[in-house]
Amino acid sequence: MLNDKSYQAASILMIQDPWWGRIGYDKSIDPKSINIYGTTSSPFWMCFSPPGISGPKGPGVSIYVRRDIPDLHARYSDTLPPHPDVLAIDVIYKGSRTTLVNAYLHGDSERYDESLNHLICHPYPTSHPIIIAGDFNAHHPNWALEGSKWVNNLPNPSARLLDNWASENDFHVLNDLTVPTRNGKKGQADSIIDLTLLNSIAVDAFVDFDWTCEAEGAMGSDHNIISWAIGAHDQTDAATHPKPPPTFTIDPELEEEWTNAFVAHLSNENLPSQPKTPSELDSMAVGILQAMANATEDSMPKKKQGAKSRRSPWWNSECSKALRDLKHPPTTALATPAVHACGALSDALGKRRAPLPPIRFGGGLVTVPQQKAIALTDKFFPKATSSRVSLEPLGIPQAPERPWHNITKEEIETALASSSNTSSPGAFGTNYRLLKWAFSVRPNPILNLYNGCLTLGYHPSCLRNAVIAVIPKPNRSNMSDPKSYRPISLLETLSKCLEKVVTRRLIFEAGKFDLIPHSQFGGRDMTSCADAGLCLTHDTRTQWALGNHVNFHFEKTGIRARNLPVDPILPTRENRATENRRNSVRPNQLARGRYPPGIPLSPILSSIYSIPLLRAIQDPQALTYAYVDDFSILAFSDSHASNTTILQNIANTANNTLRALGLEFELPKSDLIHFTSRKQQPSNAQITLTHDLGTSVITPKVVVRWLGFYLDQKLNFKEHVRYMANKANAILAGLRMLADTVKGMSMRHARILFIACVRPILTYGSLIWFHGNNQKTMIDPIQKAQNMGIRWLTGAFKTSPTDALHHLASIPPIHIYLQRLNTNAATKLRALPRHAEISRRLPKAWDSHDPTLPHPPEPKRRQTAVPSPIVRLAALSHPESEFQTPYLNPPWVPENPFPGRLQFAFPPAGSPKDRRAKIAENANRLIDALAHEGTLIGFSDGSKEVRSGVRKVGVGYSIVWKKEEVAKFSGGIGPRADIFDAEMLALALIVRRCTRFAKSHNILRIHIFSDNLAAVRIINKCSPHAAQYASILFRKEAHTFLQGNARRSIVVQWIPGHSKIEGNERADKLANAGLDSRPTPFFNRTATWAKCRATQRAAKSWGRLWAEHPHSKTVQKHIPRPPALKLHPIFQNPSIPRSVSSRLIHVMTGHGCFGEYKARMPFINGSAKCQCGDPNQTIPHLLFHCPLAEDSRKLLSKRHQTSPRNPLRDPQGIGSGRQIHLPFRNWPI
Q1: How many domains does the chain have?
Q2: What is the pLDDT of residues 1119-1140, one digit of tens each?
Q3: From start to end residue, where is composition biased (Basic residues) (predicted)?
């Protein structure tokens, strides 16, 4: 009905007895999970259903309002409380309000009386039009069909009651008494039981009501379709839908116009240069925001109503056609100003998609948006019970204060650089793009504002205002419960930028000084959910190996840190400058498409507030894990019963601690599971927790969901793999609408989508369970899901060989990719902080090993037990591999303290490669000029080569002064290094040598050239990265040199390699000479080498698997090359249509819509005959003999007339340009 042409003219559908059924299940892993029931849904309609119904027995009414009608809005009405069979909504069209009441009075006497009483026992206002329509199942002479027996029959008491109520409350029946609304069946007479009642204001407002009743479109129902028209009117009260403020389209091409307008408006604000009072901060913040808003209004075009967003680059005309075909038929906005409505039965299926329903509050339901906002605010942001939280009763001393530093320009630039231009703005409507423009032309006002906030410890009132967008949580059975929604804060970007700066500082302080226990894995850097899962699995298997029983219990706090007053746990000015936020909840502002941003400070502050709890629940027979506001306890002893006692005592202690902090646990989100090894028996021991409302009993489960992992009692992760595979299959089912075998996005973009959206789901948590030994049953579900995704992105037939499709898509089998993930993760072990939980659990050979923690015993010979995942990852790395040091540079200290004298020159991103010759020519002229000026010039390079199966890496540099080489170096750095390490080390060494030579010869300027772009970009960064040791050495030598004299300068410039630049060629020869020297390795292995080897091993393993696997003759002919991890240039070209790339896949696999395939597939009906008359349509026939493909064959031959390749034997050599699609476009198949 929602997509049927018969209802295309309808704007509102009032349906009685709608379809109601299962549309999903609650977010639970219990086999007896709660089913979620709902009615039909459509993205083009707003669905209104009576709230609070979660069972299989659905409501009797529902109302649908079209979304694409201009100036048409709808909401739940406060005129009549919701009822399963009576529903009232307010329709606001062009500012005028009309209440529509949909009623369905069942034939069942008990339910009929209940529904009728609810309809007539509530007062109706007389301030605006009200229309009541529906199936009343009542006969009365006042609305009986002319000539029927009901004209003279005595009505029943219910009909008389309804008639009396309508007369007393000034409601009028507008039915045409000559037209029946129900057609009699099986000897029944036609009758009128579907009524349309209007109050007097509605009668006066809608003169052209146009009431009609027709059987067409009833979809088999015995009730006819009733339709009528309403429009804008002046018979209304002041309770109308507010008109939204105008919005603007931010055009990047109008940057100059906007910045000029911003500078002009900002100069008129008379902002103080150094704010000294809170009032000055308020006026300064308002002035900046107002200037940005005025500049936007002056320079940017207004956004047209209904305008579509910018099209994605992969969206083409075929995607648009597929979407149009999916709608069946396309819905269009109504040309007439009237709003039509009709009531009928619906038989379609769907899922719930409705506006915000009434919310439970104060023992009832609230429907008005203002009341909903109050209810949601009361739930999300309860008032703090005390203005200050004291930690002294908990025995936790306050941390000492550290000096604070002014915010620097570089900090703001860093925060803005990582901000998305599409982030949702706050009340003033200024996004990050505008803030970047404003800061680029006038940085001082914003910098002074931020430093004033820190100095005074005050956050301007306009920046404390947050618009709260209410986001429905998925898979919730009761949408009237406020807990079924998630509040997302829409802040002013001017405020969010400040909070990002403060957040970065807090994260640095917490990591540098170990302020937050490392058992808190969330809200900080260099940790993740995978780290918590690794530690949990390691500790559980360790306790099993020691003969202990293990129980796992986790809970979630009910109030986040953003609801609490700022606490002196971390007494810095940054905390006090961002407190006392005011929230404005907008219950009807639902996010569509992209989730709006939240509060940047929320995760780190939540982690800070977890410090007292983590310190209070320490126990020698338990380990704790936390992720922001999720707290977990792993207890171990000689029995599960003892573990439950330990968990119960710890939970009670935690609850008392939370009360002292103004927090509480959400007990419904608490779970318990007993981990059992092979030799242990399962247990049913329970936990009893005491709280303010009494006691709660938590029973153990077989499978629990924790941080996205599905944990079973045996900890074998079979359930986790199954759930991940099912989730990936669901994602793939949705992606199918974007492409099929003949139309849709290109194969290149489909591959990107699969790698970004599907494969991370399949591999989530694989570091914990994958070890590669006899795990075929574990890998099969996710491999099958990947096979489905490969078939989709290539556009192949279901019968196509999956190994060939993996080859063509350049995506390795899942077990090879999982092994590569494990190896890459192992390289990061030495990058973790020394006191991180994973670092402490590493084996004894590692310097971060903590002997106070329980560790697994030494493995016995022929041990069959599954090893600890941390021990397994450690075996893939080495204790003396390259390490990385975090927190070297505070955020307020710029990475380049000499911006004018330490410069790094490289081409802008996206520069074409054909400019290399021009860049080399300019570099040669620059080198000649620098030589005449007396600048010290250096050239550095690295080299890598494999000789006799041994990798050799060389480093070389050459230093020239006044056209004479004054210094040179060549050396080797060992077999377990890579070319990037050599390039980085060469830059560090040449800077050290140049600075020493420059000091001794009184040279002020140094200019260094390198042909490695990545090394030039990262050499001065001190954040953890590969070859960080080279960056540390470079910064030490370069910064010391520049500090000695303000006239000194250093320039590091990229030049293209092997481009006839004499100095670069000289450095290359020196680096090659270093291959023959005795290597001097710095580490057992570098991080770059380890990742490179992981990639090479994956390619080799895939190549061996491809060579060992038998292939069909067609695959052997058309795919002779070994597989590669990089997509072939043919499929890399996004201009190739989907139909052409899919047909090429069909040819290369031998599974396509041609005769020989139909002949060998018995389940396919069709002739194997070619359209040209040949009895057998084969691929060679299409390529070489079919007369209908002559034109395509000429193009194919022309493309290969000078190529020795046979296009039949090597289609992958056809080419990578636009010509590839021509031979396959017009095939007669």
Answers
A1: 4
A2: 999 999 999 988 988 888 888 8
A3: 302-311
